[in-house]
Design a protein that fits this description.
Blueprint (H helix, E strand, L loop, with lengths): L1 H15 L6 H24 L5 H19 L1 E3 L2 E3 L1 H18 L3 H31 L12
Antiparallel strand pairs: 1-2
Helix pairs in contact: 1-2, 1-4, 1-5, 2-3, 2-4, 3-4, 4-5
Length: 144
């Protein structure tokens, strides 16, 4: 439940920004990462030879694959990088919940949302300055 709620918060930011994928995707990424982490954690309890890092490494690989699907390139513009990065941190948050570190998961969620919001404002301002100086010609101010 915690992983689903935290993933939903990150997905809600994407929805409010008019970006795909939806909040459902982020909730599911966070929940799945949490479940795989619980399986990984419990594998050590059930078998001393279990290695929790193996499943964790595969979560990172799988999310990299999903995130790559969110990135698009057209002409000289790349979009979806922020969404892909948020997918990655959402998976990490789910993993942290699965390893019973709800405090760290909540802190990471808050920091991800705050940084994303604040740095978007900074990016928009610097983009306007570059346009005014004639350094760039595109009118879009969002890399996502």
């Amino acid at each position: 439940i915690v992983a689903g709620a935290l993933g939903t918060l990150i997905g809600l930011e994407r929805d409010l920004s008019g970006k795909d994928p939806s909040l459902r995707t982020f909730a599911l990424i966070c929940m799945a990462s949490c479940l795989f982490s619980i399986i990984s954690r419990d594998s050590v309890i059930n078998s001393p030879a279990g290695d929790p890092s193996r499943i964790a490494a595969q979560i990172v690989t799988g999310i990299g694959f999903i995130g790559a699907g969110a990135i698009f390139k057209s002409r000289k513009r790349v979009s979806g990088l922020t969404t892909a990065a948020l997918m990655w941190i959402t998976a990490a948050i789910g993993m942290v919940v699965g390893f019973r570190r709800g405090d760290l998961a909540l802190a990471a969620t808050i920091l991800a949302l705050v940084f994303n919001f604040l740095l978007h404002k900074v990016h928009s301002a610097t983009h306007r300055i570059r346009m005014a100086r004639g350094l760039i010609s595109e009118s879009s101010d969002d890399e996502d």
